[in-house]
Amino acid sequence: MSGAPHLPVLLDEVVAALAPAPGETMVDGTFGAGGYSRALLAAGAKVIAFDRDPDAVATGQALAAEAAAFRIVHADFSRLDEAGAVDGVTLDIGVSSMQLDQAERGFAFGQDGPLDMRMSQDGPSAADFVNEADEAAIADVLYHFGEERQSRRVARAIVAARPLTRTGQLAAVVRRALGHKPHEKKDPATRSFQAIRIHVNRELDELAQGLAAAERALKPGGRLAVVTFHSLEDRVVKRFLRERSGSEPSASRHLPQAIATRAPSFENVGRAIKAGEAELATNPRSRSATLRTATRTAAAAWDEVGSVSGLKQGISA
């Protein structure tokens, strides 16, 4: 099998959490360049991968031609339960290195490109959003998904500068609005780009629905491993596992723990795992990564499917 062009983050830790055994079936819900899939295949597992990006699917089809135990599905990972009952699920949330590195995909502003940001390469683009949404809607997205405290100022500047069609244009508008100084370590446009990307791709909704799909798909004893890259994602995963394992704290420390009305669907929820020094030295992207793991119980899956609106408490916690 050909090697993946980009280093998968926390690979050893993800494989250890999934503990793949020969003959077991694993789902790689975010195929990307295929790093996790290849490692699971090497352990003797069967792998069903999902990805909504046509470029990633093309890479997966090439791998499927080499490995009979692998298949790729062109779909959002919120549909991963269509794979049937499985022994493990891994999700690597957010934008991939390949998408960031391709200026023509419009995810980053390091290289100027079209203002696109669509993981699936269809539907409304980032340019459509910033040029057509009203000022209040843009400010809301920047505040909730980018944690931009000056979201109204940035939104006002975006509307005044329309039309915007290039990543460089948008970045320049945000920097001017926030009074960016070239020597400052972090570019303030980063928060706005993250927010718009999350909105365009419905990333937090997709994450909430994907976690519920994993709950439905995993067999009793099945393993879940989720890698996130910023606090908004991690809060969604943390709250989901806290709820589903029956460890959701009461609303007040003065009140007793709420009595669970449903049997926990997950157990053995692990502590957050971060990359070690060796990985940080070779893979800078791993610096912001957090891995959370859990094991599926024999209890029925909960009926509720999370959404951004339903998880706002978790996002802001």
Care to count the β-strands?
7
- What helical percentage do the residues reach? 40-55%
CATH architecture of the largest domain: 3-Layer(aba) Sandwich
> Judging from the principal axes of the Cα atoms, what is the shape?
globular
Order of helices and strands: HEHEHEEHHHHHHHEHEHEH
Instruction: Give a quick account of the main beta sheet: strands, pairing sense, barrel closure.
Output: 7 strands, mixed
CA-based gyration radius: 20 Å
Which stretches of 5+ consecutive residues score pLDDT under 50? 306-317
Oligomer: single chain
Please, what is the CATH homologous superfamily of the largest domain?
Answer: Vaccinia Virus protein VP39
Number of domains: 2
What topology, given as strand order, has the largest sheet? 3-2-1-4-5-7-6
| Beta-strand fraction estimate | 5-15%
Supply the helix-strand structural class: alpha/beta
Number of helices: 13
What separation lies between the terminal Cα atoms?
A: 43 Å
What is the residue-mean pLDDT, rounded to a whole number?
88
* The CATH C-level class name of the largest domain: Alpha Beta
Q: Return the CATH topology of the largest domain.
A: Rossmann fold
